[in-house]
Amino acid sequence: MTIALETLTITDASRKLSHGEFSARELTESYLSRIERENAGLNAYLEVFDDCAEQASRIDERRAKGEALGSLAGIPLAVKDNILIEGRRASSASKILEGYRAPYDATVIRKLKEAGAVLLGRTNMDEFAMGGSTENSAFGPTKNPHDTSRVPGGSSGGSAAAVAGNLALAALGSDTGGSIRQPAAFCGVVGLKPSYGRVSRSGLMAMASSLDQIGPFAKTVADAELLFEAIAGRDPMDSTTLDPAQIQKKNKRAKRIGVPRRFLEKGVNAKILARFEETLTTLRGKGYKVCDIELPTITHSLAVYYIIMPAEVSTNLARFDGVRYGLHVDGDDLYGDYIKTRGAGFGREAKRRIILGTYVLSAGYYDAYYAQACKVRAVIRREFEESFRAVDAIAIPTTPSPAFAIGEKADDPLKMYLEDIFTVPANIAELPAISIPAGKTMPGLPVGFQLIAPYCGESALFSIGKDIDGD
Ligand code: GLN
Fold first, then answer.
1. Which of 51, 158, 189, 451 has its CA 20 to 30 A from that of 396?
2. pLDDT tier for residue 265 given thresholds of 50, 70 and 90
């Protein structure tokens, strides 16, 4: 049986599965044959699980028995390789985790399993989620399905390419400074970074713990919402998750959108700006009020991010010592073991950030860098809060340029870091943000339109987002 995967959404697939138009097994097998044909070229998956068909058949059997099924019953999903799935390998695309198997399910995985999802495999990424192109993977770069000479973005490039190339119906990624939204923009799919604390980080390999969030990639805003609902919630395993009672429900429809104009003057590709303006015009046509706002300190977000993030990275990656996880290389003594294992196991970018982070946290520089960055972070957060008195959401492009060529920025970390200018503010301020496909640039490359909402205001992102993608 052939299923038209190109136009399929989770909503459609769920309806067709429940009407018996196709079985979960048939749907999964369609994805597996697509993966078989395309994955060697795209390198979206690091591993495709060998029991996908069995997972799907179990759902079919339960459906046949008339059992109550979850919201994602029979839906084939891809999972970024830094999220633990019990008994499976998990590498964060790093050599240092060679041979490591996850001893438990991440909370989001437990929830996906309970919702009946079929887990297809582990997707490629920048090592430990550090990068914006998936070129920092120890297992080779992923290619952008729209143009295989270009990067899919990163660090969750494998998940974005899997969804864009119809190698999965939707996927999970993680976003510390844009790693869901930027690849979503480059690959022409929807990507959501939830508010900090909405989704449990238990079982997510930590990059920068005060910034990390797991979130969905999907083809439509409605699908992203469905996946978000399935994974969100308070979790005793992550004390930073919120109690649903703490989340204020706003029933008023979001109608006012603010644009921090001055921030957009910073070297944005002209075609990206043109698509951005067109989307604003569409929204005006649908009754939204669009106005300019000031967020003066937002311009410092990138500097703040590249101090706080490596500081936390250097601490989090200290656990990879050759004793507790994965790779072990023998040195002359214990210290020698550490040096040899970490030297052989980590790639260049991981090492660069560990060194940077150790430097900004060191006794002589802590006050000058880390403490200062934390203060500026508080100011940025306050400015967002103040601006949300006047607007319901803030719009900015997701990226300053479309997907770049593989190799183009690989040797220039600063150029690569500058790509994150529009995505890091939401992480710094712990706010929810979504990237929605909004047209293309001339050579057929997708462009992302980003919306940022007040803390826990995901519902505003979904309602405005649906007015953009027409769902
Ligand atoms: N590109 C950013 C970085 O390199 C974002 C990473 C992320 O969100 N995991 O840090």
1. 158
2. confident
| CB-based contact 259:394 (threshold 8 Å) | yes
Handedness of CA 231, 235, 239, 241 (dihedral sign): positive
In the numeric block, the tokens 């038209």 are attached to 4
Question: Given pLDDT bands bounded at 50, 70 and 90, which one contains residue 471?
Answer: low
pTM: 0.97
Segments forming the whole domain that contains residue 47: 5-236
- Give the burial string for 20-49 (b: 16+ CB within 10 Å, else e): eebbbbbbbbbbbebbeebbeebbbbbbbb
Ligand 1: which of 80, 156, 176, 354 to mutate, judged by most atoms within 8 Å of the beta carbon? 176
Residue 135 Cβ < 6 Å to ligand 1? no
Q: What is the CATH number of the domain that holds 186?
A: 3.90.1300.10
**Residue bearing the CA closest to ligand 1, atom 3:** 131
* pLDDT at 203 > cutoff 80: yes
Read off the pLDDT of residues 366-417 as tens digits, 9 standing for 90 and up: 999 999 999 999 999 999 999 999 999 999 999 999 999 999 999 999 999 9
Residue pair 428/304 in contact by the 8 Å Cβ criterion: yes
Distance 317 CA to ligand 1 centre (A): 15
Cβ(132)–Cβ(419) below 8 Å: yes
Active site residue 80: yes
Distance between CA 470 and CA 257 in Å, rounded?
Answer: 18
> Does 16 have pLDDT greater than 80?
yes
Domain membership flag for residue 145: yes
Q: Is 193 a catalytic residue?
A: no
Average pLDDT (105-111) is 98
To 10 degrees, the CA torsion angle through 239, 241, 246, 247? 170
179 Cβ closer than 6 Å to some ligand 1 atom = yes
Asked whether residue 69 is domain-assigned, the answer is yes
Q: Which residues pair with 435 in a beta bridge?
A: 191, 450
- State how beta strands 433-440 and 190-193 pair: antiparallel
Q: In the 8-state DSSP scheme, what is residue 82?
A: T
**Domain presence at residue 152:** yes
312 alpha carbon to ligand 1 midpoint, in Å?
13
Q: Treating both helix axes as pointing N-terminal to C-terminal, what angle do 301-316 and 348-361 enclose, rounded to 10 degrees?
A: 100
Ligand 1 contact, 155 CB (< 6 A) = yes
Domain count of the chain?
A: 1
Query: 375 CB contacts (<8 Å, ≥6 apart)?
Result: none
In a domain, 420, yes or no: no
131 lines ligand 1 (CB under 6 A): yes
